[in-house]
Amino acid sequence: MTLVRKFIVNLLHLKDIFVCSYQFRHRDKELHLFVKPYKVGCRCPHCGRRGAIMHISSSPRMWRDIPVFRWTVFLCYQPKEIYCTTHGRIQEEIPWADPYARITYRFEYALLVYCQLMTQKAAARLLHIPTSTLSDLLHQSIVRFRDRHRIRGLRSIGVDEISYCKGHKYATIVYDLDRSCVVWVERGKGRDTIDLFFEYCLSGHQKEQILWAACDMSEAYIGAIQEHCPNVKLVLDRFHIVKAINTALDEVRKEQWREASAEERKVLKGLRWLLFKRSSTRSKKDSRTLHALEKGNRRIYRAWLLKDEFEQFWEFKTRWAAERFLERWTTSALRTRLEPMRKLANTLRKHSAEIVSFVHTRLTNAVAEGLNRIIRIIKNRASGFRTLDAFADIIFLTVGDLDIPAQIPGKFRTV
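Request: output the structure for the sequence above.
Response:
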């Protein structure tokens, strides 16, 4: 019997745990190990001091451990109530699990790592539990660790929104651009949503420590950042500015397409993606096709020239030169009879200070867009999520500012 217990301890790597006996139950599908803490029992979970035993539970508690081959393993133990001179009457520390958990640290670590790498359905199959049970356990673990966590060292932030469900349902995400991670997720994309982050997640001192911020041209995000962060230097994201210019250009193309005759449409056909190309990626044939628009359709040609000229803005090194270029470019756009370009020029003039800030900082939301790509991969891998809570759990687990699996005690981090 002693040799069998030693074999079980070595096979399962049970550290600080003494195996008293074992049983196979439920047609030999479950292995129940009756255990007790080895040399670490009767300790206070808060201060670690040993205490006098006050009461022993009449029925054993069970903790699910990682499965071995075809067996589901459970650790069984009758926890004791002890008297601590500092904390009074309290249940002794359970070395292999969190005080209120029904799974061991090893099982929890395996669950977290598997869910980082694969779908929850596949992880549930490896751990021999239903998918719904795994989702509940995952949510409990992430909430427990996130509740203990506080945002620290925030200097550069990015703000963006993502779609998490069909029907135009959006969530606002705040990124730490220095550490390339997500620090906050909340339902909605308006001013009320982003205000929650600054009011309830950051102290006044933390807001003062934020020096740089990047976002799109949303008035809600710009207003909230400028109001709550007195020392911030706001930079409108380069990606969203280029996207706005391309959208205005495409609106001009659509207007001309609707007004064109069947013969004229032959000239305009296939131009959409060609117009969006940067000068560095265009071939000579592409350039000849675009310059031919000067005779084929001058309105699209004029809009494309404005879009192409704006590429120079990102190369400026001094603020005064960037300001002068932006002023001249918006004046040229306003003088055209192209309403989408005129509307865009007014928007850029309104936010000229935040756009020109790019020259000194070179700050963009590229980190945020990269993280958004990972988030979309996670969403596609799961074929979507029914609720934002479930989606946020996987976001924090995969690209959050807290390494959640690393919160498990080191000796139990084995899969």
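The chain has three domains: 1-101, 156-236+367-384, 238-361.
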